[in-house]
């Protein structure tokens, strides 16, 4: 079986990251253990050469960076996103029937719905409470046991089920929470959430639940799969694989060069938020770093422009591997394989931001690191997806390319990737962070 020093850490990270807030909290823990210092967005930053720092926005997006010992500042930037498709619980979500209590949901992102049926579902997300002092404060919630299920309709009652039946997210996707009877007295969803919070945060002296952002997730842990353990199966590989590999690379780098990781939220719903790639998070941080570089000499805008043009962004988001049952869904010459190394994603209409200059840079980095590299281009008769790369390039002006690890079943409740590929990507991104020149 293929052995990797990072696989166990990856599995642990995936299992502890049911939502973007939990993924961000896990990354904070890892960065702080590696010596990164927390910066508040609302305060003036006092930075020093060679320093390592991080800041967050909305609790679900993170920027971590290191400064070189000497000027001028150029940044090796890695971009990823923390969110994944899921079923979000509606604000007034209690659905009381004659026999069962269900929770109404709305679909977050482009979820593949069929695999959600008959799964053991937990509940996780962020809750805002009122403390005894009257302040509002966030709490993370993760009920990591089988709390609910979305039962399929038996084939006997739907003989056409295997002929491509449509799924109605409003009427058919509400998870069943418990069997109700006359003794049950649940008046509100807040009452249930307060009960779960008090179970999970024993001794937390909050007064009441005020608001929440919660959703369902599959509690089955990620695992190595295959006779030789050559596959990795789990939830939210898109895009926590990229978050993990970028984090490992930044921590493992030699600290000599300027390097930065931006992990945005809300990519799955278009990135249009304060913590998404269309927001100002990365631009605000780059502005602070331009101030640091300008120092007492001024010329802030000139420093910012020059710093951005000296920097490069690798946007990391997973790619579609050639499926063994549907090989015709790929261009035969551009069909990435699991365990074939990172995939450079190219699109002539700039749905991916890669061009020949940025693509050549990454190919050269992979060559130096001894990492295989693949290329993905969509079939000419199929639409192409997109990711944070073009959005970030547009809002910042950073020279950018899009890459990712190959996977099957993207946006399913459980996805599959190659067990060797995370190490390949960590090696390539670490070499990128260590590279002394970017042209």
UniProtKB/TrEMBL annotation:
One of its GO terms (molecular function) is metallopeptidase activity. Keywords: Aminopeptidase, Hydrolase, Metal-binding, Metalloprotease, Protease, Zinc. The keyword Metal-binding applies. The keyword Protein transport does not apply. Coiled coil: none annotated. Its cofactor is Zn(2+). It comes from the Bacteria. CDD domains: M18_DAP. Its EC number is 3.4.11.-. SUPFAM superfamilies: Aminopeptidase/glucanase lid domain, Zn-dependent exopeptidases. GO terms for cellular component: cytoplasm. Pfam families: Peptidase_M18. One of its GO terms (biological process) is proteolysis. Belongs to the peptidase M18 family. This is M18 family aminopeptidase. It comes from Kushneria phosphatilytica.
């Amino acid at each position: 079986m293929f052995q990797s020093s990072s696989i166990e850490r990856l599995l642990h990270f995936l299992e502890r990251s049911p939502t973007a807030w939990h993924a961000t909290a896990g990354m904070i823990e890892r960065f702080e253990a590696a010596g990164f210092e927390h910066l508040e967005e609302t305060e003036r930053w006092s930075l020093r050469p060679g320093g390592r720092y991080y800041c967050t926005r909305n609790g679900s997006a993170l920027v971590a960076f290191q400064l070189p010992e000497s000027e001028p500042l150029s940044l090796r930037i890695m971009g990823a996103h923390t969110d994944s498709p899921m079923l979000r619980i509606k604000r007034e979500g209690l659905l009381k029937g004659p026999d069962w209590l269900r929770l109404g949901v709305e679909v977050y992102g482009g979820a593949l719905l069929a695999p959600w049926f008959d799964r053991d579902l937990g509940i996780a997300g962020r809750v805002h409470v009122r403390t005894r002092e009257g302040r509002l404060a966030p709490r993370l919630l993760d009920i990591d046991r089988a709390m609910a299920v979305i039962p399929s309709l038996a084939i006997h009652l739907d003989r056409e089920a295997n002929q491509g039946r449509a799924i109605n997210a409003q009427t058919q996707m509400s998870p069943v929470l418990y069997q109700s009877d006359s003794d049950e007295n649940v008046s509100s969803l807040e009452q249930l959430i307060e009960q779960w919070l008090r179970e999970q945060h024993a001794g937390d002296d909050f007064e009441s639940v005020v608001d929440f952002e919660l959703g369902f997730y599959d509690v089955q842990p990620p695992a190595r799969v295959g006779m030789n353990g050559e596959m990795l199966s789990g939830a939210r590989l898109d895009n926590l694989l990229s978050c993990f590999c970028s984090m490992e690379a930044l921590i493992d780098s030699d600290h000599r060069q300027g390097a930065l990781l931006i992990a945005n939220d809300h990519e799955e719903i278009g990135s249009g938020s304060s913590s998404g790639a269309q927001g100002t998070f990365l631009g605000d941080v780059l502005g602070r770093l331009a101030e640091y570089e300008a120092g007492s000499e001024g010329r802030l805008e000139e420093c910012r422009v020059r710093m951005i043009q000296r920097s490069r962004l690798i946007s990391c988001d997973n790619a579609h591997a050639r499926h063994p049952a549907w090989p015709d869904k790929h261009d035969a010459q551009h069909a990435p394989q699991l365990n074939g190394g990172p995939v450079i994603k190219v699109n002539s209409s700039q749905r991916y931001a890669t061009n020949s200059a940025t693509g050549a840079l990454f190919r050269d980095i992979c060559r130096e690191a001894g990492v295989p590299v693949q290329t993905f281009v969509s079939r000419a008769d199929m639409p192409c997806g997109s990711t944070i790369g073009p959005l970030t390039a547009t809002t910042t002006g950073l020279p950018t390319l899009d890459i990712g690890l190959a996977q099957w079943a993207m946006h399913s409740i459980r996805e599959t990737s190659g067990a060797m590929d995370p190490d390949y990507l960590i090696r390539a991104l670490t070499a990128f962070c260590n590279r002394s020149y970017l042209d």
